[in-house]
Amino acid sequence: MTILLIEQYPILRAGLKYFLEAEFKNILTLESESLSYLPHDETGQRPNILILGLNEQHRSESLENMKQWKKRFPDCRVILYDEGEMDVQTISNYLRIGISGYISKEASSTELGECVRIIANGGKYISSTDLLSWMFDKPRSKNRKISRAKGTVRLSNRETEIADYLADGKGTTWIARKLDRKPSTISTIKGSIYHKLSVSNALELRDCVRQMKRNKVFA
């Protein structure tokens, strides 16, 4: 697996390289301060994953560069590594051009490693409370059918616990404190729950959990 690191700060870039090479076996890491100055790879391998470091000053510029990158390397999976909390509109623009992951630079090394593993295995990873709220809490069309979870739904023990808290009206910050987890981690699990149960907001989740309890699907 070849990972390309784009980060303007040399110390942070070196730290990422050290972490990734310690965390994953048989990987090649390439690095550069900008997409405009790509490193030369003597093996001729194309990067499988691009980790793009972002800051508030260069988000718009990076978006335009990313559009060109995806045209050039459509199969390369991209992780945005952001120093702040990106607004919903900007990150949705990135999603439209095909990024695979978003994670804050404030995330722990454990979360970063999990993010890279999920992306490498073909999944998506988004660590953003605001974005998850936008994705999963926005109203659905009245004509859109909701596939209610019945006997076929399989939530993990942790997802079941968090779904119960959410259905009881607890917020992600409260749940994070209760379970000693990061709010971003709870938000990611919340997104997974909403997807598995085919619900789009807290009210639908509450009704679905109640239905599952009546059907003895939910503990």
UniProtKB/TrEMBL annotation:
Short name of any one Pfam family annotated for the protein: GerE
Keywords: DNA-binding
Domain named HTH luxR-type: residues: 148-213
InterPro entries hit by this protein: CheY-like_superfamily (IPR011006), EvgA-like (IPR051015), Sig_transdc_resp-reg_C-effctor (IPR016032), Tscrpt_reg_LuxR_C (IPR000792)
Example GO BP: regulation of DNA-templated transcription
GO molecular function annotations of the record: DNA binding
Transmembrane spans: none
UniProt-recorded name of the protein: DNA-binding NarL/FixJ family response regulator
